[in-house]
Amino acid sequence: MKILFGPVSSRRFGLSLGVDLSPLKKQCNFDCVYCELVRAKPVRMQDEVVSVEQIVKEVKEALQKGIAFDYLTLTANGEPSLYPHLKELVYALKTLLHKKKILILSNGTAVLDQFKFKTLLDIDVVKFSLDSAISKTFHRIDKALRSIDLSLMIEKMAEFRMEFKGELVMEILVVAGINDNEIEFNALNEALSVIAPTRVDISTIDRPPAYPVKAVSEERLKELALCIDCVPVLLPKRYLNEQKIDFTEDELLKMFHLRPQSELDIEMKLSPKSKKIVQKLFESGAVKMVDLAGVKFYRV
Ligand code: SF4
């Protein structure tokens, strides 16, 4: 049984040491069509549970070995908030980790349970998924337990955001022919404007999925991302051969004014000449750099 994995370096959350809260089998209240795990009937709770002591022991050993990481990431073969001792675990880890941050990668359903809702308030960075803001599509993609009410979940996510002192990242995964259209993205934009997360990450399938569904092209992802104008957007995956464009200073200022651009955007989109202008704007204070849940964004 392997509880800890990594550390792995990701564009989304820096260097992360993973903790698998369901190491023995998939235990999830969703059965997403794009899941990289095997298909499995959604469940309400875990029936195979690892002890808090075992997890804490392994984390302690990693710390003693001096393994470097920025985030301890609570994840699972399934939904980590189904772990029944999450509160005790978070408490024990916080005492152990001192200044290192805890991140949880949840499908968002934790907000529907008041006890889990409160537990997540103690975590530094919370990632929720939201693949659709339209109930029919949400159930088609995520194959959630029928009792999960999407509009209530969105409402609770917004409530969570109001109380939460940490950073909330939302994630949208785009599946060809299901949520890859403007109607879906306009509805998502509306939901995100109510939730007001720190940033939203948009990606598509890049591993073999549980069901026969397909990814969308990089181009389409970029077009859909333009529908999201209420929150900084990160497209974590970029092709290296993306065309580099020359922008004038005015064009760059307008771009930063319209939407924050991640370091990755700058790296992938801009010509060397434009990058120099960005550097100059940054040094003069016309453009600022902000850290949004571990990812640096330029903004005016
Ligand atoms: S929420 Fe995550 S683990 Fe659960 S089915 Fe969806 S992708 Fe798989």
The global form is: globular
Main sheet: strand order: 1-2-3-4-5-6-7-8
**In angstroms, what separates the terminal alpha carbons?**
48 Å
> What fraction strand?
15-25%
Helix percentage range: 25-40%
Number of helices: 10
Number of strands: 11
Bound molecules: iron/sulfur cluster
Report the structural category. Answer: alpha/beta
* Radius of gyration, whole Å: 20 Å
Largest sheet: 8 strands, mixed
Q: Detail the poorly predicted runs.
A: none
Q: Provide the residue-averaged pLDDT.
A: 93
List the helices and strands in order.
EEHEHEHEHHEHEHEHEHHEE
What's the SSE blueprint?
Blueprint (H helix, E strand, L loop, with lengths): L3 E7 L3 E7 L31 H13 L6 E5 L10 H12 L3 E6 L7 H7 L4 E5 L5 H8 L7 H14 L3 E8 L7 H14 L3 E6 L13 H8 L7 E2 L14 H10 L2 E2 H7 L2 H13 L3 E5 L2 E5 L1
Parallel strand pairs: 2-3, 3-4, 4-5, 5-6, 6-7, 7-8
Antiparallel strand pairs: 1-2, 9-11, 10-11
Helix pairs in contact: 1-2
The structure holds iron/sulfur cluster.
